[in-house]
Structure formats: structure tokens, C-alpha cells
Design brief:
The protein is an alpha+beta fold. It has 2 domains: 107 residues, 2-Layer Sandwich (Alpha-Beta Plaits), CATH 3.30.70.330; 29 residues, no CATH class. The protein is 25% helix and 29% strand. The chain has a 5-stranded antiparallel sheet, with helices on one face. Strands 2-3 form a two-stranded antiparallel sheet.
């Protein structure tokens, strides 16, 4: 479920802009930030309210489990400008929401994540093995 908080003005750029991050390195920050460490009970309106001090929140999306509908504990917040997204990272990382300390960081493309192949070797492979679809290739998936 994605909640749109405000109407997007037509002149808001959707491209990313180079900015300097909190650690001093150049970033390509888009208008979105990743928010991790959310409580399962946190909903989109509460997250939007928590993220509002950094700038104009355009949309909030908390990622949920497909089968149970329960929050996976992370989500994404879109801002009107890349500068507001950077302000959210600097100001709101380490703050408390619903009794949990949340982490706010830049959105990274899938190929920059720590271990993009984990899903094939981890939970997904075990689930499919139980269905019999990966039984013959299980040995090749494990290092």
C-alpha cells in the first residue's frame, strides 16, 4: 500500500541530483529515502508525520509481507526535492518512532546492495525446495 500525502507540483524534477552526503562523499540522491527498523505496528500516516520535518513528503510506502500482510519493518519515503531527502537522512537517522530507533539512508539501486544474490541462496530457495521445484539444483545453489 502506498499513501500519497500531497499533490506533486508539475515542476518538481524526478531526476536525481549530485549532493554531498553526511560522510562527505558525493551521492546521487533521488527524491526517495529508505527507512529501516520500523515497528510492525507503524503505518503510513504515522511514518509520513515522522518524516515531515525534513521537507514536503509526497508519498510513503511500507513494505509488507505478501502472505501475512504484516510490515517487513522498512519502507520508502518520497520528497519533493533531493535536498529534502538528504535533510531527512541527516536529521532523522537514529530517531525514535513507535518505540523503535529508525535508520534513514539513501535509496541504492539493487546492484549496489551488499549481497544481491542472497535471495536465491536463502529463504526463497528453501521455500521452493519444499515445493520440489529446486530439489535437483539445491547443491548448485549452496557454496
Amino acid at each position: 500500500m502506498c499513501v500519497t500525502v500531497r499533490n506533486v507540483p508539475s515542476e518538481v524534477p524526478e531526476e536525481s541530483s549530485p549532493l554531498i552526503g553526511p560522510n562527505g562523499r558525493a551521492l546521487m540522491v533521488m527524491n526517495q529515502v529508505f527507512v529501516g527498523g520500523l515497528a510492525w505496528a507503524t503505518n503510513e500516516p504515522a511514518l509520513a508525520e515522522h518524516m515531515e520535518p525534513a521537507g514536503q513528503v509526497l508519498s510513503v510506502r511500507i513494505i509488507r509481507d505478501r502472505e501475512t500482510g504484516r510490515s517487513k519493518g522498512y519502507g520508502f519515503v518520497a520528497y519533493a526535492a533531493p535536498e529534502q531527502a538528504l535533510a531527512a537522512i541527516e536529521r532523522l537517522h537514529g530517531t525514535t518512532l513507535d518505540g523503535r530507533t529508525v535508520g534513514v539512508s539513501e535509496v541504492r539501486p539493487r546492484d549496489e546492495r551488499a549481497d544481491p544474490g542472497r535471495d536465491l541462496q536463502g529463504d526463497r530457495a528453501r521455500r521452493e525446495l519444499g515445493r520440489g521445484t529446486l530439489a535437483s539444483s539445491w547443491g548448485r545453489l549452496r557454496p
